[in-house]
Give the backbone structure.
Amino acid sequence: MPITLYLIRLYRTIRTHRRLGFGLILGMLLLSVLGNAACFYAFDGRRAGASFGDAVWYSVISITTIGYGDYYATSTGARLGTLVFIVLFGLGIFTAFLGMVIDAVTDLALRGQFGMHMAIASNHSLIVNFPSEARVRRLIDELHSDPDRKKREIVIITDQVERLPFEMPNVLFVHGSPLLAETYRRAAVEKAELAIVLPTASDDPNSDAVVSSAVSVIDSIRPDIRIVAECLDEKHALLFEAVHCDAVVHGTKITDHLLVQEVSDPGVAQMVDVITSNVRGATLESALVDADLPKVTYSSLAKSLLDADVNVLCINRGQTGHTSFKDLHPQKGDRVIYISPTRLTWNQLLNRT
């Protein structure tokens, strides 16, 4: 049988019989290298002035078919060793070994593209569901434009697409149902910082039920993660009251408000577009009141902050948002909503007054 045909058949046999295992192939490869090295060292070592390490070097170079020529077999014993351990045995095993390595790398790459692998990420953001490519890409751009999240990974979780239709830096994909705990474990939810749950589609009447269920699954696995969900229909708000969700955004409701506002007051939509985007201009930020409470009103504080290019818009206290805060004094737990080129903590806001 020609040696080439023999190698091809041996390689196909090993690939077909996966039960031989990578470990067995590696062991056989090691045996062929050491066997040839032992024969060369025993029969030609003195002549060539070679140590056993040199013999192993000669064996490795031979089995990889490089053949530098610094060492070569001359005696009958060394040549027989090369014939058996390298030509008849080693080359086929080495070919199979390379094939298995290439298969493993290829399989890993394909599993990554089709979202079948475990996401290796930490302190990352999860985007659940895939309503459209344009919507998800815009959201990724906004997250990456946030200075605090610019270099952090984003893991997309969905079963709506087989693979992502785009490639972006620091964006990973996990294919699976957003209602299964195993899907979130593959997305490393235990190490995630934030979960954003999108609707399945803008016109799906069942979307809010799926979103609230996904929120419930995430919260059951990781109760301390921050979860922001989108609700399409305000009538379904009760679905989100039954689950723990840090914030629920009624996208359609906000859009309707903005459309009517723009009719009466042209320019409002442009302003909202700027202050809600991380990509351009100063943007909306928030700071939690968690330290020293000055004996002043928010109104006087806001006047001082204007000179520091910080515009206070609203004070959230519990479920109430105060846009008029003339006689309102700071209380621990308040959240100050302001416009600024940079995100500031409560102490940093105080230092700018």
